[in-house]
Amino acid sequence: MYELQVSTLNWLTAVGKDVASCTEGGFLHTNSDSQAAGKVYLVGAGPGDPDLLTVKAVRTLGMADIVLHDALVSAEVLSLASQRARLMNVGKRCGRKSITQDQINDLLVRFTIAGKVVVRLKSGDPTIFGRAGEELDCLRVAGIEVEIIPGITAGLAAAAKIRVSLTDRRRAEQLLFISAHRAHGKRNADWHTLINRRTTAVVYMPGEPEGVAEDLRKAGLRESTPCVIVSRVSNRDEQWYQQRSDCCMPRPSCHLPVC
Ligand SMILES: C[S@@+](CC[C@H](N)C(=O)[O-])C[C@H]1O[C@@H](n2cnc3c(N)ncnc32)[C@H](O)[C@@H]1O
Q: Domain spans of the chain?
């Protein structure tokens, strides 16, 4: 038995009666042995350009009843959702949280139990720095069917944009996707255990690039290490800036970081 506390009722009421109608006395009960009527699709929205979506993502958006999307998902991608779909921005931007992860989990369960086809749309690939783990755990406990549809993660789109090989065997023998930030806003402090001079590092959520450059130097990278900063790759307002890591300070003005 999965017991879901209605901690978000006020917020949910604003969402509409689809959700309100599936609550019962403050708790929602489901039997994990029985499959819920709806289904959740955890879909990768890619970096922004709708041409970078998978065919399967487009098809799934076209049959959605509900789309719960992150703030970074582009308007062009959202426009591919079915006309009847209700779009809900559940994104967190730069640490400002309009809705908690628990509330998002609640919504996924509620809408699915109400029989909806729910698309959880995350920028890039849903399994990369996207809190998919918490959502999958919650849905698993609730006995809800989930399908993951991968997307092009920002790091791969950035490499394509600047036309570099991430694993050029003359320079790199490992590829590191790393977040500069850990849970609860803490800065990652483990660079030296993760990186060496033959690593291509793709840094997500860099915060201030100067801080990342300093961490990389402390981890043993030469100051001449090539470094590219890419913002909003594949979107109309994309920007990129190529330098050596020691030159991240000062950098030209651009709307960085994407966070
Ligand atoms: C919460 S993570 C989500 C990553 C996403 N799941 C992916 O696979 O790309 C958000 C971070 O991804 C990076 N990011 C996402 N989309 C981006 C884009 N279009 N251009 C550059 N960086 C992007 C930024 O570092 C941003 O702070």
A: 2-149, 154-247
Q: Output the CA 259–ligand 1 centroid distance in Å.
A: 7
DSSP the chain: -EEEE---HHHHHHH-HHHHTT-BTTEEEE-TTSPPSSEEEEEE-BSS-GGGS-HHHHHHHTT-SEEEE-TTS-HHHHTTS-TTPEEEE--EETTEESS-HHHHHHHHHHHHHTT-EEEEEESB-TTSSS-HHHHHHHHHHTT--EEEE----HHHHHHHHHT--TT-TTT-SEEEEEESB-GGGPBP--HHHH--TTEEEEEES-SSHHHHHHHHHHTT--TT-EEEEEESTTSTT-EEEEEEGGG-SS----S----
**Threshold 0.70, pTM exceeds:** yes
Tell me which residues are annotated as active site.
Answer: 70, 92, 205
- 2-149: CATH topology is Cobalt-precorrin-4 Transmethylase; domain 1 (3.40.1010)
With a 6 Å cutoff on the Cβ, whether 204 touches ligand 1 is yes
Class of domain 154-247: alpha beta
Tens of pLDDT, residue by residue over 97-148, are 678 999 999 999 999 999 999 999 999 999 999 999 999 999 999 999 999 9
